[in-house]
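cache lookup: miss for this entity combination. No prior model stored, computing from scratch. Input as submitted by user K.M.:
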Amino acid sequence: MMTAYKTTSLLRTGIELGVFDVLAERPLRPEEVAERLGLDARATRITLDALAALGLLESEDGRLGLSPGADELLVRESPGYFGDMVHVISSDEEWEALRRLPEAVRNGGSVLDTDAESPEYRYWEDFASYAAAIAEPTAQVVTDTLEPWAKERDDLDVLDVACGHGIYGFTFAERHPRARLWALDWPNVLTVTAEHAEAFGLDDRTEYIEGDMFEAPLGGPYDLITITNVLHHFSEERATELLRRAAGVLKPGGRIGIVGFTLDDGRPPRQDPAPHLFSVLMLVWTSQGEVHPMSAYKRMLSAAGLELEIPAVVPGLPFRVLTARHA
Ligand SMILES: C[S@@+](CC[C@H](N)C(=O)[O-])C[C@H]1O[C@@H](n2cnc3c(N)ncnc32)[C@H](O)[C@@H]1O
């Protein structure tokens, strides 16, 4: 635990410098890597040997090549490339925030001048650009879960609140050609969302609502409102406020789709570490955020005049999909 940050730093460095990409062609000597990437030869040797020590590279006859796994996950041209996730789950912003955890624990929340709740926070642009690897499979689960309901619906007007990349709305709209989307987020993030709308071929069915989701006029009413991976930024009271706003613009028979980490009430932390570790990020990065237990979700929905349907799990990822309707 005391040295885990070195592993993170080496992985980030290898990806940022393009080490794995250059070794994808063939094994090379450290000085050849240095020359190809415009790096210092001695420093490259130290770094490549350390990456080999971690098992990400293999060393043979003075040349370094990729280990199985590194070739699949860390080479930009590979279909399974996962390297961009460093911008999301090993970001500078998280790194700096977590250094100040003791202060946050004393203070009861973030001590940063700029944090995840700041309007137009720059990190959310990276999140929108690079989180597709986790958003895509989760968005499929959301769309599958809503499929029986959607089939029976004449209109499918969708509001994606705090949409980020927009993949939740776009995945749903791809499946349902009559769906129309309204994507809400800060303006700097919506620039990335608009690029994705174009890539999905959905720009003619997408409108944008810029601004604070607690303040901006929401338009509507909507058949479906997605609120994904954002309720944990807030206290139970503040998250309830957002659910109330959403419930106010939900058509009769409409659905709210929620995605996020959740906690099972009474389950020991050791048996379900991911949401507890994520809560620590919310502690250093927001004023009141944390992962809410299922009992809190039920309370929040009920206070907003909504009721929970059956929750779904996302295979291989620590998220739950919850759908809700008017009580
Ligand atoms: C963790 S990301 C979630 C993105 C996407 N919904 C997903 O599930 O991957 C949180 C998003 O909420 C947006 N956000 C946070 N606070 C907001 C606010 N008050 N108003 C509008 N957007 C906000 C951020 O800009 C960011 O895009």
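stored under new cache key. The beta strands are 57-60, 63-66, 156-161, 179-185, 206-210, 222-228, 250-260, 306-308, 312-313, 320-326.
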